[in-house]
Design brief:
InterPro entries: Prepilin_IV_endopep_pep. The chain is an all-alpha fold. The protein contains seven helices and no strands. The chain has one domain. The chain has helices at about 1-20, 25-45, 50-60, 65-85, 95-100, 110-130, 135-150. The protein is globular, with a radius of gyration of 14 Å.
Amino acid sequence: MTTVLLAFALSSLWTVAGVLDAPPSSYLLAWFGIVLALIDLRHHRLPDALTLPLGAALLLLQFHRLGEAALSVLLFGGAHLAVRTWRPRLMGGGDVKLAFGLGAPLALPSLLPAAILSSAVTLALAGVRRSRRVPHGPGLLAATWALTTL
């Protein structure tokens, strides 16, 4: 059943990206995003074996705006690192590593909306699950995909 849902979600995201003539990073985010979100939802972990290659690939895809992408990486990841440092119970280390990588495809003006949207998705997930302990990775991935695709 999970495989069917994974295939449906991936094909839906790729279809939307194709219709909107989205950048290549949207397809990469769709594939990695669904897999990482499922892992994070089930195990509350974001494996380095997936987050680090995703971050590197997203940065490489921004070769035409590498300076701005590097600054976005530092700002978006740094903000999440600051939260992790000040309030470690609010965010895991995997979320911080993921945020560094997800900063690459985001334009500088999109960083604040990405943070707000990812937090809103995480809060909605907490409401649906009726739990205070929910992963932040799915929210980060959904917000980044939406802001780079739509």
